[in-house]
Amino acid sequence: MTPKRRYKKPLIVEAICEFHFKASREWDPTVFGRYYERIRAEFPKKDTEKSPSPLWPPWGLKSKSYSKMFFRRTDGSALVQVGENDVTVNAFPPYPGWHNLKTVVFECVRQYAQVSEEEKIRRLAVRYINMFPATGKMRLSDVLAISPYIPQSVREADHPLSLWLSQSLGRDQKLRLDITFSPSGWPKDWTGTAQEQDQLVVDIECSRQADEGLDLAAVEEALEEAHGAVLDLFEGLITDHVRRFMEEV
After folding, report:
1. Calpha distance 46→33 (Å, rounded)
2. Which of 87, 107, 205, 242 sits at a 20 to 30 Å CA gap from 17?
């Protein structure tokens, strides 16, 4: 594992910890209200959403229409998403650090397990979305240690680029990397509005699938392993130019 580094200015725009419980009983919608009573001191703002499942649902989950509730901090620094046997914690800048985030995440999961009376987690994931700074024109080779087997004409071309990588780590663990580069002048969304500067997003996720189900006692270790895998990939991907920008401490 890569030695832990700390930075004054991390590039994290969102950190996500996601959990899917192994259902042992019929879903009870009253879980929403009972769960809210447990976490409302820290996440008092709530709202609901009825939407289709994600385009690519997590492994083993069937696509269906589902209800979700969102519980937010008043300062907008974090939210908890709760669905049918699902709990997701999202953290936004300023990044609180892994120790603080993990403490909040584990408490949210523990409270959900007590309210729902579900004891096994079938899938968990740790995901970090990083937005790289852009000053003028960005050359990917300056900020990312991208393999030389990717042609230079692709690495340094002045047009959008998307790279995707998936790796099996054993023990039902998978690591996913998604790099998206959009240069200035290209449309940034469906409106066709041009971006004012280059934009580079590095999205890294490590997931653990456990069909037999993980006990809560094993969740903390699994979270540490997933976070370590994400950290190792990030540190192996960035250049010293980026480390200087983030100001290592």
Report:
1. 10
2. 242
In a domain, 4, yes or no: no
Range of the domain at 239: 12-246
- The total of structural domains in the chain comes to 1
Written as one letter, the residue type at 56 is W
Rg (CA), the chain: 19
Could you tell me if 180 and 189 are in contact, meaning their C-beta atoms sit under 8 angstroms apart? no
* Helix spans in 166-248 (H): 216-237, 240-246
Q: Say yes or no to pLDDT of 134 above 50.
A: yes
pLDDT at 130: 93
Dmax (CA) of the chain = 56
Q: Measured at the alpha carbon of residue 142, what is the angle toward residues 141 and 144, in degrees to the nearest 5?
A: 60
Say which residue, 206 or 241, is predicted with more confidence: 206
* Residue 222, in any domain of the structure: yes
Q: Which of 249, 230, 217 is CA-nearest to residue 167?
A: 230
Residue 112 CB neighbours (<10 A): 22
| pTM, 2 dp | 0.85
Residue reference for tokens 């979700």:
68
Q: Residue holding tokens 């959403």?
A: 49
CA angle, residues 211, 213, 217, in degrees to nearest 5: 150
Report how far residue 217's alpha carbon sits from residue 172's, in angstroms, rounded to the nearest whole number.
Answer: 18
In a domain, 18, yes or no: yes
3 in a domain, yes or no? no
